[in-house]
Amino acid sequence: MCSTISKRMLGLTQKNSAVREMFEEGNRLAKLYGRENVYDFSIGNPYFPAPERVSSAIHEVLENEAVNYVHGYMPNAGFPDVRQAVAESLNKRFETSYSSANVIMTVGAAGGLNCALQTLLDPDDEVICFAPFFLEYGNYIANHGGRLVIVPAGASDFQPDAEALRKAISPKTKALIINSPNNPTGVIYSEETIKKLAAVLEEKQREYSHPIFIISDEPYRELSYDGAVVPWLPSFYRNTIVGYSWSKSLSLPGERIGYLLIPSEVEDFELVFSAASISNRILGFVNAPSLIQLAVAKCLDERTDIASYDTNRKLLYNGLTALGFDCVYPQGTFYLWMKTPCDDKEFAQLAKKYNILVVPGASFACPGYVRIAYCVGSDTIRGSLPGFEKLAKELGL
Amino acid sequence: MCSTISKRMLGLTQKNSAVREMFEEGNRLAKLYGRENVYDFSIGNPYFPAPERVSSAIHEVLENEAVNYVHGYMPNAGFPDVRQAVAESLNKRFETSYSSANVIMTVGAAGGLNCALQTLLDPDDEVICFAPFFLEYGNYIANHGGRLVIVPAGASDFQPDAEALRKAISPKTKALIINSPNNPTGVIYSEETIKKLAAVLEEKQREYSHPIFIISDEPYRELSYDGAVVPWLPSFYRNTIVGYSWSKSLSLPGERIGYLLIPSEVEDFELVFSAASISNRILGFVNAPSLIQLAVAKCLDERTDIASYDTNRKLLYNGLTALGFDCVYPQGTFYLWMKTPCDDKEFAQLAKKYNILVVPGASFACPGYVRIAYCVGSDTIRGSLPGFEKLAKELGL
Q1: Which domains does chain A have, with CATH numbers?
Q2: Backbone phi, then psi, for B258, in 5-degree steps?
Q3: CB proximity A254 to B under 8 Å
Q4: What is the ipTM of this complex?
Q5: Which residues of A touch B255 (CB under 8 A)?
Q6: Which residue among A179, B40, B200, B276 has its CA within the 20 to 30 Å range from the CA of A64?
Q7: Percent of chain A beyond pLDDT 70?
């Protein structure tokens, strides 16, 4: 028994090796067959670079603003002007009336989610996630002493089931994490779904006489296709906190820049906002990185190359369904969620024979599927299809 | 009783108002008397701007590197090249043999400290701090379920007392936070002090058969005066983790960029390093901001304007001692630690009459003193001295 690091972290060092193995497998295959002959669909890393405006905005900030302002401390919630600009850009889109007082700039969405959870959770409070979901949420919840409660996937459309939610809520339920457009399914939760979930939450809030929050994790909000509308959750449910990140929409995942939006309508708004700002400080973020705060404020109308992701989406979906695979048609994100004709881990293992790397659904608490991340070049998708064809034959499709 | 936010955060929202009050008091006085007539010594915010090299390094990175590399994901521990550059710059200074494998780039020192603490602490493990100390450490420790144990200040030179340390160590002691050059005292812990502390720790490690770590928080390492040498702790004690930040040395506090240095010699090195990298990920940092990682790697030999801080130091120390105040001569940082002839909170209150803002020692777990942050323009120091003179008379010095 190791007495050097904590028991929890010891467990995580052992788990982490699964991810590392996949990464190392990609490198091993690339060495053997050449990087261009490996079809790595395992990582949700934006393929199309940040729009040029990001770089010019950074140059502008450095040239026009005082050095101590650009690199200096500001309130823990972020530069007031940047927060106001974010609020106004939301107001234009969602007919809301937010101001800087509703926005906390955060170290990505991951940083924001941790602040929201620390703000809300007492030890042993419960937080609900709908499977399949990004398993990292479980780590975030555990960071703050909370307990993860998983509501299993229901119908095949991967819209969360309000009745299953009702059964999962207990007097200890403090929050629900919603992620739409969804990683890993690519599904956008419909207005109908949101209304049903909100009705259950309203009912349970009354029953238990305490607020239950939706924490809406929205890094993929801007990645929706066919003009699909991603419902703005605070318009449907009062106690909603939105976490956003520019990691995907501006292809800035390394910069760690996002925000929390806390509407004035949430219960005890001033306490919640104040606590989340303090949490930003005490968790060690202190504030979102300053230069990049100032830069993204100039890029609020910029977007990554969604048309190219859309091309990939159709190429992959059409290619795989033509081979007989059963896929969920992605409405958003850059993930395709595919049913596996055999055990999902076995499928991921078999796929490696054809230099194809995908993530088993078990890694999202939903076995029987795999996630195929199409944030890659179109050539990678085209190149992978013969391998998928052989897989289909091998599995009797 | 509020049931919206957690009990811990509710307590912190109430405490936080003390800091906010000081900030608002500064603004109130500035409105009444003009900003230039307010002598605000309350905040440790670098006054001298980042060296010009920082800005040119950022431009260089943007111009010469691929966009997806600059703003993209990298290993959670940071860009391998950046980590190698940091390791080599330490090797040059301290005759060590670190490599990228010993460095984790972090979101400032605050981010790094949180990762180190999460790595080490099981619930109710104890972490020792020597008073006076930066109270935020208490929040960081509590984030990870640890308990803060305070060793009171001993002798008037504010060097920690090894015998007091021995008494404070229990079987639950997992770590000790050391901060030298010290905020708030400006003292550099001497080699003699470090050796004595190390001897006690070695003895207690043997007694309890488990490692006790020093976490060395070193944001002020580069801010030392008169050629004073800040001992490199890992050379004196094997189980040392160093947390660094460029917030003060390059005046980049808003950018949140620092590192953890974990020597290969620490017990269970691979586990500790792996856990700290995972902690960087799961706490929501994910990685240190990417562009600024690449930029600081080009600025490892740059320094802020230490000569000007030194001018301030002498001006303030000489001015105050001439008035009869009892001050600790600062060897490093940009803080002066002054004994108060009356209660420290009362002194801070009295000082406001003369538009002087200082922080009571109680805010560092050490009443009877105040911290005067001289990271200000020299004019602020000169302008404040008549007010300090009136204070001295009022208090019978």
Answers
A1: 7-50+304-394 (3.90.1150.10), 52-296 (3.40.640.10)
A2: -160, -165
A3: yes
A4: 0.96
A5: 71, 289-291
A6: B40
A7: 98
